[in-house]
Write a structure and sequence with these properties.
Number of helices: 15
Radius of gyration: 23 Å
Strand content: 5-15%
Distance between the termini: 29 Å
Length: 310
Amino acid sequence: MADISRPGSLYGAVDLGARKQALDAQARREAAGPQSAAASIVDVTEETFTTDVVEASMAVPVIVDLWSPRAPGSAQLSPILEKVVGELGGRAVLARINVDASPQIVQALRVQAVPTVLAIFQGQPVTGFAQVLPEPEVRRWVDELMGAIEKFYEANPSLRPTFEDAPEGPAEPPADPDLLAAEQAIDAGDLDAAAAAYERLLARNPADEDARMGLAGVGLIQRTVSVDPAEIDRRLGDPGDLEAQLVAADLEMLSGGVEQAFERLIGVVKRTSGDDRDRVRKHLLSLFEALPSDDPALAQARRALSSALF
């Protein structure tokens, strides 16, 4: 049976927009070229530590990768850090430090294991970890770090870097109040309020993709909040249990199995007819709403659905 276990984080489950962010980041990297990501990554020595880490951290967080060519874990973790930090477009710096060549830094930072990752901000270590994490966990850690930095600047606006101090890059427009209200409602677990905020935003701007995706994500949670995944998994043994197939697809979407959810429902479309087929088709279209319009999985699923219908 497919893994349709419930996601652990409410906000993470709704935030299917992470796929959109990844696509946007990829587009920015392609437009800016390889030098853009490289500018956010520096190799640090004991001689350059003060300038490249301590002083740099007064404007942006510096993520320090303490690695060693002798540590297999470094070979796994370092490329992930380079990828994730490179996608931030200069909003953070990755400082790579070879611990074998920098014993004084190791002593000063009290490094006990390799690899170790530390975030330095305003000249001080603020968070870190000392283990090999998979890419999703690294992304979550970086997202939490960047969120904490933004809250710091909101509380201390005079310390926010000026245009001259900040890394080069386009300024982002202020977030829509209803979008912020929706995100706050999600954080508070109030899905009805989140849906209402997204609906208000869409009423004013029907083309707002973030609102469309957010509303679809909230709908997924609302449909599955009282569902027992084990019970749905058991019911999937009955090919005629249409409701189980629909709920299983919802759970797969929330667990990140987007392609798996699409394939499931397209398969059901192929083997049903009449009202049942139309119900599944409409449900699949509602899942499409949870993804950015340029998501490759969406284009592929639309083609497959068209083939299944005609």
